[in-house]
User: Fold this.
Amino acid sequence: MVLGARAAVKVEAEQVLCRFHLSNFVRHGTEPLYQWIVEVAHKGGLQGATVLKGFMGLRPDGSILRENPWALAQEVPVIVEVVDGPHHVESLLEDVEPVFSEGSITLERAHVVLYRGGDTHPAWKDIAPRCDVVATKEESAAWEVKTVKIPEEGALLRIFVGESDREPGRNRPLYEAIVNRAREAHLAGATVLKGPMGFGRHSRMHAAKLLELSTDLPVVIEIVDAEERIRSFLPVVDELVTEGLVTLEAVRVIKYVSPGQGRS
Assistant:
């Protein structure tokens, strides 16, 4: 099939990536809200859910969350990721939005290339052929999802660096410098995630090993805000990041701010 330059095409396996950005201290009843969201997604028959825990983050009120390895109870940012069709995501949001009091929810396009459920679900198989089609906002399933609160057009900035990378001219960790500069720019928030394994452009493999006290593990800084605010922050990123990868994606953003919070 040959596609014209203006052809409006929606790929068969186009899904929606729904991400809930919140603190592990936010609760629903007696349990953490992120845990309740996963349970609701499971009961609703969604394809799956993943919880990512950050070790540093920036809250909307400008306060910085930082992991303390010696603390028994500590507040850190978490992200719950769910990938499914727009109608299933809508159903999940109908349950979650009324109780989601603090944080943000983002919706973006996800093209599922492979989904397998193992031997217990033989009917599940590869559901998407190789496809080079890139959907526009109007064609993306993420823009079909109906929400209780009207979402804003936004952007997701991801900065991929190494844990041992340092701020130019200083000995401060680069990820920490980026979060602090995001705070100075009054961006809506940031989450820093650490991976257990990875490699960069020089093909050096980095992995966490049991007996090592320090390793150069991959780190991702994620910042979600209005596109114009993100773009105004890009010169700061260009100044700080001397080696790494930076991506920018269009998302729909639904913000929830608890009483007493807000940008200064």
In short: The two ends are 53 Å apart (CA to CA). Residues 1-12, 122-134 have pLDDT under 50 and may be disordered.
